[in-house]
Amino acid sequence: MNILTSNAFVGRFVTDWSGPNCFIRSVKVRLGAPNYPGDTMIISGRVTEKNEQTKTVTIAVKGSNSMGDHMNATVEVVLP
User: Digits of tens for pLDDT over the chain (80 positions)?
Assistant: First the structure.
């Protein structure tokens, strides 16, 4: 799996949580262990920062598989 596919999974995970009217302001992804076709990757996330004035939320996203952490990401979104 390459960085483009990993970025797509991160974006989908965040927009599924925040809804279709959110705006992704920034995405920072760091790859770790490889992820191969047929391996199961579990993606989880947690809100690390919230700014009610700017309606922004920062989310830490992690994707893990049988080899360890495939990706760690930080995503900032603007909520409607």
Answer: 889 999 999 999 999 999 989 999 999 999 999 999 899 999 999 999 999 999 999 999 999 999 999 999 999 999 99
User: Structural domain boundaries of the chain?
Assistant: 3-78
Pair of tokens at residue 20: 């279709």
Structure pTM? 0.91
CA 14 to chain centre: 6
Look up the CATH number of domain 3-78.
3.10.129.10
Q: Would you call 28 exposed, middle or buried from its count of C-beta atoms within 10 A (0-12, 13-18, 19+)?
A: exposed
